[in-house]
Amino acid sequence: MGWSDLPGDLVSGVADRITEHADLARFRSVCPSWRSASAAHAARRRVPLLLVPSQDYSRVNRRLWSLADDSVAEIPVPAARGRSFLFASPRGWTLGVDNDLAATLLHPFTGASESLPTLPSSFHDGDQRILRDTVWDRSPDAVVVSSGNGAFFCLLRPVGDRGSWSPVAGLCSHAADRVNSITYCDDGTFYLLDKRAGKVTVVDGETFAVVAAIEPPDLAMPRPWLIPESTLVASSAELLLIVRTQLVYQGYSGSEGLFKVFHAERQNLAAGWSEVAGDIGDRAVFVDHLRGFCVEANGVNGVRRNCVYVASSYEEVDDGYLFGWVVFGRYTVSVLDLADLTTQDLSRGSLLKCRCGRFWQWPSWCMPNLH
């Protein structure tokens, strides 16, 4: 009898006792029979984790908050040591950046890392808020980053060759080409979003040139002083544009605001956006300052269907210190039900105890995998 011949109930029982995401992924990669027997347990674990900024950047361990059970786990990420800013992604990889603009791709669940060229000087300009608001994504062959205006790409090179950053052709580094979100799709396309304008710029993942633009949908604002903000979500066959006048924040979504979801076919972008009437099906959208992405609500992973989960942060001033006041960062997660637009604040328990010192940063969602 070989390993693949073990009874399915025995394999399933072992899988149920595995607590680490990386260990479960390795377990399921042994053979098809093990993967099948552990499918139910894997489905329960298919929930995004929130990468919470650390108070001590010199440490190896970094914090991950679990939506499933409100727990905070510390995992060793040696490549993150000294990296002041970490930006996670649903593909498992994380971009780490230091104050001197040194950049690294790192994988919290495998320990893999890859050095990148030093970011362009425009990413600092004497203001750490530029680095804090950096957005990025990667394809199998390249990384695209933006500090807010224009964008740069870097081809992933063999070990020892860091390459260089080049501007994306067709974008200018001024306010007319603002980039607040970058999303890569498996069809080889990067989608760059201006959150305030709602405009999407389409960039070819081979030539890194702008090939199309999707103009924002027409909106009638309920109040002239309200400013819309958009989130782009790319799935297998479509794009979703979530437009809201206020980020779901600390349990409050705004009774006089606007919230709409629009849909576009990826194979027919020229047709533009059409409004979705209240239901996005058996899935949920997870949003942070970087991007939005969809997760299946499979009935066992605890993710609520037709909902939007938003992670954010805010400053908190603690004036109880002996030598004056100190500013910390606190983190929030709220869930908005699209059926009735009610909001629930999830920022309690373990997440409420997390804070970031020195300079508050954004938390970001990641999906545990080994790829």
Please describe what this structure looks like.
It is a single chain. This protein has 371 residues and is mostly beta strands. Helices cover 9% and strands 37% of the residues. The chain has five helices and 26 strands. Strands 20, 21, 22, 23, 24 and 25 form a six-stranded mixed β-sheet that branches. Strands 3-2-1-26 form a four-stranded antiparallel β-sheet, with no helix packed on it. It has a four-stranded antiparallel β-sheet with strand order 4-5-6-7, with no helix packed on it. Residues 247-255 have low confidence and may be disordered.
Q: Which features characterize this protein?
A:
5 helices; mainly beta; 371 residues; 26 strands; 4-stranded antiparallel beta sheet
**Biggest β-sheet strands, sense, barrel:** 6 strands, mixed
The parts where pLDDT drops under 50 for at least 5 residues are 247-255
Strand proportion, as a percent range, falls in: 35-45%
Alpha-carbon distance between the two ends: 30 Å
Helicity level:
under 10%
Average of the residue pLDDT scores? 83
Structural class: mainly beta
Question: Radius of gyration in whole Å, from Cα?
Answer: 21 Å
Molecular shape: globular
**How many DSSP E strands?**
26
The helix tally amounts to 5
Topology (elements, then pairings):
Blueprint: H1 8-15, H2 21-28, H3 32-37, H4 39-45, E1 49-52, E2 61-66, E3 71-76, E4 85-87, E5 94-97, E6 103-106, E7 113-116, H5 128-132, E8 135-138, E9 142-146, E10 152-155, E11 166-167, E12 181-185, E13 189-194, E14 199-204, E15 210-214, E16 229-234, E17 238-244, E18 259-265, E19 274-275, E20 283-287, E21 292-296, E22 307-321, E23 324-337, E24 342-345, E25 355-356, E26 364-366
Parallel strand pairs: 20-22
Antiparallel strand pairs: 1-2, 1-26, 2-3, 4-5, 5-6, 6-7, 8-9, 9-10, 10-11, 12-13, 13-14, 14-15, 16-17, 17-18, 18-19, 20-21, 22-23, 23-24, 23-25
